[in-house]
Amino acid sequence: MTDTTDAGRVAILGAGVMGRGIATLAAGRGHPVLLVDTDPGQLTGALATVPDQLRLAQLMGALPRDVTAGTIETATSVEGLDRATVVVEAVTERIEPKARALAAASEAVRPGTLLITNTSAIPVDELAGSVGRPEDLVGAHFMNPPYFIRTVEVVRGRRTGEAALAAVGAFLTALDREYVVVADGPGFVINRILQRMINEAARVVDEGKATPEAVDALFTGCLGHTTGPLATADLIGLDNVVDSLTVLASRTDDPGYRPSSLLLDKVRAGHLGRKTGSGFFEYRSTP
User: Fold this and answer.
1) Is 138 within any annotated ligand binding site?
2) Which pLDDT value is given to residue 286?
3) What pLDDT was estimated at residue 285?
4) For the chain, how many structural domains are there in total?
5) Does NAD count among this protein's keywords (predicted)?
């Protein structure tokens, strides 16, 4: 397994919200970054967004100011992944695009290169079938935004090897992240619990029992949560919430995970949360 404790090149597949956030974190810790996306528009947006995120993180003390930021290159194909010490897949939360991205990366990297999937609900072992060396694949569920939230949920798939598990730990330590290792399964720990809570909160609003403001005020005021479930959903992206719930519903046959009508309506209307300026709450500007 390739050593990732030095400032090696980090390749990130997917230039959406999470891909940009992980790029910010890696570059801010001195790693050169290759950001890969088949959509040139996403890459253009990332090149505009990541420097702003990096400055904000440094200003807030979340990333060091005395570390020279790593360079960020972009590409629309996996050519160049052979120079990466670690590959992080962060494409949309659906199995087909994730499997395609990981399969292409597996063919392009050097043998033994650490492959990380940032899946938030799809079991790692399902994705392991798409790569040439399943033992090199491990889950690392970064929270949004990853340059502010220091703890990462590491998911060990059934075929994840000891070397990959050690390598992901070294990589996260180099990024100054803490991590907790959990077993594989739909939603792992965080989203198995969180997505049901978000879904139920949306149902409460849809039934007219409470406003989104009231729901979140109860969670922050009574339970001490920093952010309520619906503001958390807006931060995640309501499209991603629906994707995760769909995965959980299909893998568990539990009706509690079927996306609520209100969530589906908001996604259909394009009200996806912070990234679009409107979700359960209104936002003056997108991050």
Assistant:
1) no
2) 43
3) 61
4) 2
5) yes
**Is the CB of residue 109 less than 8 Å from the CB of residue 115?**
yes
Question: Does 75 belong to an annotated binding site?
Answer: no
Q: Is 16 annotated as a binding residue?
A: yes
- Can you tell me the distance from the alpha carbon of 79 to that of 178, in angstroms, rounded to the nearest whole number? 31
Burial 228-256 (b: 16+ CB within 10 A, else e): bbbbbbbbbbbbbbbbbbbbbbebeeeee
Q: What is the pLDDT of residue 8?
A: 86
Domain range enclosing 143: 10-183
Which pLDDT value is given to residue 3?
A: 45
Does 15 show up as a binding residue in the annotation? yes
What's the CATH number where 214 sits? 1.10.1040.10
Is 86 annotated as ligand-binding? Answer: no
**Is 11 assigned a ligand-binding role in the annotation?**
no
37 is in an annotated binding site: yes
Asked whether the beta carbons of 247 and 186 are under 8 A apart, the reply is yes
pLDDT for res 168: 98
Q: Is 266 annotated as a binding residue?
A: no
Quick check: 182 and 139 in contact, CB under 8 A? no
Q: Is residue 1 part of a domain?
A: no
Looking at the domain assignment, is residue 155 inside a domain? yes
- 257 and 120 in one domain? no
Residue 30 is assigned to a ligand binding site: no
128 and 229 part of one domain: no
Which amino acid type is present at position 131? V
Same domain, 119 and 20: yes
Does the annotation list 120 as a binding residue?
A: yes
> Mean pLDDT of residues grouped by 10 in the chain (287 residues)?
61 96 97 97 96 96 95 95 96 95 97 96 96 97 95 98 97 97 97 97 98 98 96 96 96 96 98 96 74
Q: 161 and 201 share a domain?
A: no
| pTM more than 0.85 | yes
